[in-house]
Amino acid sequence: MEFVCNQCPRNCSALRDDCAPGAGKGFCRMGAQPALARAALHFDEEPCISGSRGSGAVFFSGCSLRCVYCQNEKISHHCFGKTVKTQDLRQVFMDLIGQGAHNINLVNPTHYAHAILRALERPLPVPVVWNSSGYEKVETLRALEGKVQVYLPDLKYVDESGAARLSGARDYLQYAAKALREMARQVGSVRLDEQGVIRSGLIVRHLILPGRVRESMRALDWIADHLPDGTWVSLMAQYTPCGPAREMEGLNRPITQEEYDQVVDHLMKLGLENGYVQEMSSADAGYIPAFDLTGVPDSQ
Asked: What is the structure's pLDDT at 300?
């Protein structure tokens, strides 16, 4: 299997073939078949996603962004994972549903949209969550319409300099702005079931980074100004220095209580009351999933 890939904003036009994870020619360095690092019930997402039985989290290897502080660096930077056939991806989803998963949570899926679309040709009996960096092409998202019920994107940056320095993507907001509006158009406001578990809708995540309080405030301003009233926001305080950020001045520390309080206060002043505010105690490397191939099948 091989194809020329332009699924993400990198627009590599790279030939994706049946290479090993990390040996590909495009920015993501991945082959044509999906590579997974973990597929298991996950309980550390937003409460309406984890529910009581857990979210069926499928962690994909490789990344189209590769932030310098990524807590999943083992899979995003170092491409750890095992290749599975596209037809086996559907069975991974069904196995998680059989374990009681409230939803199928596709973590960092953008560069595998082609395989995911095939795996979702027939609807699943639970919602599908597209859990991404927000660095997306509208054309790719439109192909997912009707197959994804919940969008869980980041809004990482509104400033070009930060996006360039930390993620090598000066055009981040150019793409994320269009992508988030497209997600909102597709799925609308959050809808919960009787148990408070999400059935459909958009939740926008923003991670507070050390030394970037003003930029976090501007990101929240953007959400308030450009997305529909009532949009859910998940404000995250879990930043832990990982990857190259461990050696970068300013990023080699957690956020402070003062930084946290300033951003939370701004969130409240803007009236972004729907969603979640993560506690500072979440800034712990112990919350990083074990990328050990749990739930990843052997493809023959």
From this structure: 56
Alpha carbon distance 291, 72 (integer Å): 9
Whether pTM exceeds 0.85: yes
Q: How many CB atoms lie within 10 A of CB 13?
A: 10
Phi-psi region of 209 (alpha: psi -120 to 50; beta: other; left: phi over 0): beta
Stretches where the chain sits below pLDDT 50 are none
Q: Tally the residues of the chain.
A: 300
Burial 207-230 (b: 16+ CB within 10 A, else e): bbbbebbebbbebbebbbeebeee
Query: In angstroms, rounded to a whole number, what is the distance separating the alpha carbons of residues 204 and 156?
Result: 10
The whole-angstrom separation of Cα 18 and Cα 241 is 34
Cβ proximity of 150 and 103 under 8 Å: yes
